[in-house]
Write a structure and sequence with these properties.
Elements lengths: L1 E5 L8 H6 L7 H9 L7 E7 L4 H13 L4 E10 L1 H6 L4 E4 L4 E4 L10 H26 L3 H9 L2 E3 L1 H6 L5 E2 L18 H12 L10 H13 L6 H7 L1 H27 L7 H11 L3 H31 L13 H16 L10
Parallel strand pairs: 1-2, 2-3, 3-4, 3-5, 4-7
Antiparallel strand pairs: 5-6
């Protein structure tokens, strides 16, 4: 029987959220469910491709696999990093694909508080690191000190390196190739999960969101029966649930449309009435799209203004220049210029033109 360790390692309480969004993830309850279906004396084939996640949930999965009476054959088909590498250690015979990688490192956490809280968190993490190293030691036979140094360094291993350290038993296939793996675990951020839980606390029973687990259970049952649940089947087999989903969807649609129109109206600028009305009632454009259109329209309007202003100024720019005549000097001024020119000549100066 095959079981999968795919996606982030998460807690049981978060599993349905990942399922709802269609994101692969592995929780202890999911593994327990798969193990409960293993026929007696049948070998378990475990495929692993995970960037890790919760240490304590990984510990529960590791323990469940080690306790199971069936032999566990594990294949690391992509990545076994962090907590996922701990789960991999539960395999009686562990192989790695030549294009896979394994990564081991220290546990991490977030702490808030004074120096005592920080010291306490530091001691706690050191203890967690030791328990993680226990799983590696039982598989490889290495000393704890060497394993802890490897964890301190955040050690990435190719299949050859993992085999040299005794962490795997075999490399799959005969030909070997290079590999590229992501360090992303794919876990939904804790703040998103917390927000979703808080949102669900005050949702009424009639809400489609509150009925999400029910819809998922129905869809899951259909898949197990070899059938896919579609909207028409939901309407016929579960009319009340269908009405809840439809009504909630309608209300959400109205709310979203009202918000779209309000956002567009907030963008109103003089001269853009036609564009605003068209977006509100004809094109169904988003506020961000309308904002871009308004910017383009304003830019074009400004360019047209500059072009018109330059066009109006052309006649003035092309007009010929006129020389302003010198004002005739009176006799008194001529006399002054003659005196000035005479003094200039005495000192090597230049004759003033008005002194002629």
């Amino acid at each position: 029987m095959k079981i999968e360790i795919k996606g982030p390692i998460i807690s049981d309480r978060d599993q349905w959220i990942y399922d709802w969004f269609g994101i692969k993830a592995t929780s202890p309850s999911k593994v327990h469910e798969q193990l409960s279906k293993v026929p007696e004396n049948e070998e378990i084939e475990m495929d692993i491709n995970s960037g890790g996640g919760s240490v304590f949930d990984a510990s529960e999965i590791y323990t469940a696999l080690r306790n199971h009476p069936s032999k566990v054959k594990g294949d690391i088909v992509g990545l076994a990093a962090s907590a996922a590498s701990v789960i991999a250690m539960a395999a009686d015979h562990l192989r790695m694909s030549p294009t896979s990688q394994m990564m081991i490192h220290n546990a991490s956490s977030i702490a808030i508080g004074d120096h005592r809280e920080m010291s306490h968190t530091s001691d706690f993490l050191k203890n967690v690191n030791q328990t993680i190293a226990n799983a590696y030691r039982l598989k490889s036979g290495k000393d704890d000190s060497e394993l802890l140094k490897m964890m301190d360094a955040e050690t990435w291993m190719t299949p050859q390196q993992a085999k040299e350290h005794g962490l795997i038993d075999e490399i799959m296939f005969e030909t070997e190739a290079s590999a590229v793996a992501s360090v992303q675990s794919g876990m939904i951020p804790p703040e998103v999960l917390d927000k979703l839980r808080n949102e669900l606390k005050n949702v009424s029973p009639e809400s489609s969101i509150s009925s999400a687990p029910a819809v998922m259970n129905i869809a899951q049952n259909k898949r197990e029966e070899g059938k896919e649940m579609n909207l028409e089947q939901l309407k016929n087999d579960y009319p009340e649930l269908y009405k809840q989903v439809k009504n909630e969807g309608y209300q959400e649609g109205v709310k979203a449309e009202n918000q779209r129109i309000k956002d567009i109206e907030d963008l109103q600028l003089p001269g853009n009435d036609a564009l605003i009305n068209q977006a509100k009632f004809e094109t169904n454009a988003s506020a961000s799209d309308v904002a871009v259109q308004i910017i383009k329209a304003e830019k074009e309007r400004g360019q047209n203004f500059l072009n018109d202003r330059n066009k109006d100024a052309d006649p003035l720019n092309n007009a010929g220049g006129v020389h302003t005549p010198l004002t005739p000097a009176n006799d008194g001024e001529k006399e002054k210029h003659l005196i000035s020119n005479t003094i200039g000549k005495m000192f090597g100066g230049v004759k003033n033109e008005l002194g002629q």
